[in-house]
Amino acid sequence: MNRATKGAAGALALALLLTATPAGAQKKWTEKSIIAKFAHEPSVQQVQQKAIRYYQVHPDRIRSLRLTARLKALMPSISGKFSNGIYHVNRGMVDAIYRTLGNKEDESVAGDNLGFSVSASWNLDRLVFNAEVLDVQSLIGILDGVVREVTTIYYIRRRLQINMILRPPTDLAASISQRIRVEELTGLLDAMTGGFMTSSVKAAKKRQRKAAMPHNGGTLRQASDVKAAAVPAAVPAAVPAAKPGPAPTPAAKPTAAPAAKPAPAPAPGKKAADGTDLAMRKAGK
Q1: pTM > 0.70: yes or no
Q2: Would residue 163 count as lying in a domain?
Q3: C-alpha dihedral over 54, 55, 58, 60, to 10 degrees?
Q4: Confidence band for 24, pLDDT divided at 50, 70 and 90
Q5: 91 in a structural domain
Q6: Which of 150, 157, 174, 242 is within CB 3.0–4.6 Å of 169 for a Cys-Cys bond?
Q7: How far apart are CA 181 and CA 167, in angstroms?
């Protein structure tokens, strides 16, 4: 194998190597450039706070519920009673000796009773210990579980995004699978934050587009001037000189129209029909 053949084989191998190298590996990424690609996404602390508010297990709320449960013993239990009764009594007394005489006494009694009562009671022993405080205290476990779950999902999603940049998949199936996985994790974060993840990303991208757009006509004019200055002016093509044409012909001299010849005078002695001389008639005119 001669030197030319070896050189061609080496160039072919280098071209195949560059073709097989992923696009993400060709670009030199840095830590700052990778982090800057996700500047439009909310931080993990923001997502945690939204999830805590969404599940209503914020530490301030737990503290307030615990204090309320302890002071519950100071609130009395109030009960009331209302009663209303109507009665009618008829009584007749008969003499034991003279029964035939009928009733010795007749008595009829009718009445209406109306009453109500109110009572209040306190369980002061609950000021020392109240079991409901323990129930409120169990919300701390829910808080810890929410924070852990959100943090885990957030960073699994972030690692997958960075892996797609630095080591992009070489086949279509793997690329689609990774994108679906990112969307799945985004959906889980939305479910735990009330849709905060997606809405925050959309709002950040909208702000970036507005910041990138010019705000007045001066900026647009300046941008167009810069663009026009960057493009070199086209050199006008040389126009060939026109060939001299034939010499102009001299203008034709105007020819004078021939003067009209006067009509011949009638011969003397010739008379008109009325007997007058025609020459004398024209002289008189």
Answers
A1: no
A2: yes
A3: 100
A4: very low
A5: yes
A6: 174
A7: 16
